[in-house]
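Z., the sequence and structure:
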Amino acid sequence: WCERRPEGRQSQRCDKVANNDTIGKTFSVALGVCLVCSVFVSVAAVSLRPTQEVNKLLDKKKNILVAAGLLETGKAASKSIIDELFEQIRPKVVDLATGEFVEGVDPEEHDQRKAAKDPAQSSVVPAEEDIASIKRKAKQASIYLVEKAGKVEKIILPIHGLGLWSTLYGFIALDAGDLSTIEGLVFYEHAETPGLGGEVDNPAWKALWNGKQAFDEEGNVRIEVIKGMVNTGRPEAKYQVDGISGATLTVRGVDAMVKYWLGKGGFGPFLAKLKTQGV
């Protein structure tokens, strides 16, 4: 543009353009844009936080209902439907060391994951016992009783442990009658490889857990994920679940976390009390 202007006008205007096009001014404009964008993002994050918390709680309820068999996996459900179905669920807080119910603590307010990071509310898991690779565990945990006509039918227990790339968080359901028959398994958070370790979310694989026995007659944890397919003709088949091809480390993590949380380091004392005192 400047070169097409007459000689007399060119120099003054082009000098102004050149003076404005400096590294310092370019940097200032870029910084200003970044600051404005960061303000918008911060405001959006703060304003959306209450909605995110509501959706997070709703998703948690939905997964508990799926584990309880009250909601079909992958089926869309409105908040009103989820809340109505959740009326059959009675949350309780359990002391993991004693197996006793904890009174005076709101189960819906209790955050087990947050408590596990607080030294006052958690304890270190000894390395030789930490088969789920969780390092610390909360002293108290929220469990969920599935009731029908005033009778407890199932017990939902939260579980978590290390897979290949991430910590997997989920729920496992046990029949309240024998406290051994597995009635459901779901995972609501993980970052495993899609198509490989991510297949722990496959409804067909999760369905393989239903009806399996978690404990033997002596009360030992026997459930396990094996390599390959279960031979249904063998007596131990009732304790075994098919592995997932190409996801050895992920399913090994699932196997370990289920054993840990059903064992003495997890909900073992709680389940033992229920067996002697009744649900």
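Helices lie at 7-20, 23-68, 79-85, 112-116, 203-207, 248-262, 268-277. Strands lie at 89-95, 122-124, 136-138, 140-148, 151-162, 167-175, 182-189, 224-225, 240-241.

Let me know what you think.
H.
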